[in-house]
Batch of 3 targets.
Target 1
Amino acid sequence: MGTKRRARTPREKYGEELKLRRIAAGLTQEALGEMVVCSPTLISHYEAGRRLPSPEDARRIDRALSTDGFFARWLEDLDTKYADHFAAVAELETQATLIQQFALSLVPGLLQTDGYARALFQAYRPNHRREEVDKDVVIRTERARVLDGPLHPVLWTMLDEAVLRRCVGGPQVMAQQLNKIADMAESGRLRLHVLPFGVGAHSLQESLLTLMSFADSAPVAYVEGFQTGNLMDDPGLVASSRTAYDLALSDALSHQESLALVRAAAEEHEHDQQ
């Protein structure tokens, strides 16, 4: 018996159709990229279902392939539960073989406990409603299921010490959050490093950063700010992002030292409850 192919996501169906139409038009990814005014790498991400084109890029694709608005109309149906700037990132996380993330002030979403995530969502909204917060917490929890597999993605997490010290949700929530990270590090599910305050200035002091690598496609880098994010696939930008990550990593504590610091910080928060 043959191995069953997993069900395709709507994005993958979109990408496969784009590839078929491109080949039928006799165009390479490079040629289509020139017509759409984007890189061949981006076209490959579209065709693999890892990213969706912007509405303007979808219209350019339709013009390049003479598809009479087909891809622009289909794009409107591919709604997402994530913010526009993050939707492609969430999709890429499910396909990455390696995720290397740096957090400047908050625990990364993939590692957040329900209590920690809930406290953040409440802080984001001046008049939060419980049902809205509950929905957001569920979405974030579901996103973290990408880590349920024993091997992939390989996960590296580097935290600025500020992440450990800022008490989000109160001492109990914070202690539970840090112990969860430490438990994952001890079990081998993530490689953990902390950039201590004593390092002073470091290469990632201005932003969080996520690097993702894939089995059959070029790596990407993602940075995020308030209500915005930038997913980069330009080889030069990805390379400079990786250099910045490596520089920061060279200043960070070892895995064991970081684990000990996270446990100690959790204990400090626990004592604050008393």
Target 2
Amino acid sequence: MRERVYRTEALILRRSDMAEADRLLLIATPNGKVRVVAKGVRKISSRLAGHIELFTHASLLLAVGRNLDIVTQSQAINTFTTLRNDITRLSCAYYVADLYATLTEEGEENRPIFQLLVETFAALDLSINPDLILRSFELRLLQIAGYRPHLHHCAQCGTLLTEDANRFSPLIGGVLCPDDQHSDPRALPMGGSAFRLLRYLQTQPMSTLEHLHLSATVRTEVETLLHAYLRHVLERDLKSVAFLHHVMRGE
């Protein structure tokens, strides 16, 4: 029998006003994403308000409700102050939340994805390379969710890829070897530097990304390839991508 009150770690990913003084929250937890209600939180006297700000890592005490569980207590673990006060990092956080919410099902337990989210928000809060943090997040989220792109073996035939591979196929699922590069007429061209960066990002921890010094051209090429792959997996573009581009590139 489910306990009437339970505690969980959570990341506040989305919020919207509800009724006169309540807020509806979309949170990520080790047990999956879930929608909960914070009652009376918009009142000046609310003790919860400061602990359920957007993109806060918190410990929540929840009461089981008829339709939605109710936040009864909250204690902030990390408020990611730098992230929430910098428009570039903030736009990255919106994108991370959007991609997570789109690629996962509600109530589907996945502790590795929750830990990835916590690590990603912490990295965005401090990193000098937020765009590379996003690329690392995309690749790791895809891997955990079962959509890992093939970057070390040909997506078509499985042979070990060498440096002369120069085509990326979102349709087939990754990089194609020279013998199979024409198996997808819509495969995207891929430069050697972008290929090396993709493989590095797929295998190395986020903590190593601060040491990379890369041209804007390579960064943009890797972003283009991964977003084309995500578009194929999700069957649409995320709305947050346009906002992200507007902030980071002035588009």
Target 3
Amino acid sequence: MTAPRTVLVTGGNRGIGFAIAEEFVAQGHRVAVTARSGEGPTGTLTVRADVTDAASVDAAFTEIESELGPVEVLVANAGITKDTLLMRMSEDDFDQVVDTNLGGSFRVVKRASKGMLKARFGRIVLISSVVGLYGSAGQVNYAASKSGLIGMARSITRELGARGITANVIAPGFIETDMTAELPAETQAEYKKSIPAARFASANEVAKVVTWIAGDDAGYISGAVIPVDGGLGMGH
């Protein structure tokens, strides 16, 4: 059994982030979420933050630290997409996605690491995507930002591994969220053909892997990329 920890999930107001926060609450942890709008699940502390702004991130952490204590488990989940083919992708389309998904993870990890170093304990979980390794037409910006998280986690592991801090990457595939629910039935069927498990995952299936990798039983795993994709990205 993992001792209760102070957990922060960025982008915890919907989708996978919401499910992750919910699962940490269910397991008895003190949970905060950052959101630009909306609220996290019942039992969480919702803090306004924009991960593209270091001052905003710092203020959010200060609020969480005073309410719940130093962040011991960080789940960097906040992310955006601006999908379009390479030839049509603007500099802005590229920069915004990379600054939010990769830069945002850097900002929250850097701020969280202060308390983790002091405590000589920390769990950093970066939410990537099967697309980060598998690639996806129309997602040059998103895929680049998500594969960048792997280099980040592995570098953090080499820097901070001796201080009781782990850094791992979760790479979800297709998940049942509002976004996938809006896809036409024939598109969903087409996607499922390429997935060996022949179905999408529930957000809770991702959440349970995140809580496990952040728990005491996984203390000797660091720098790993754990796919939760029904076999879609095998070998990548």
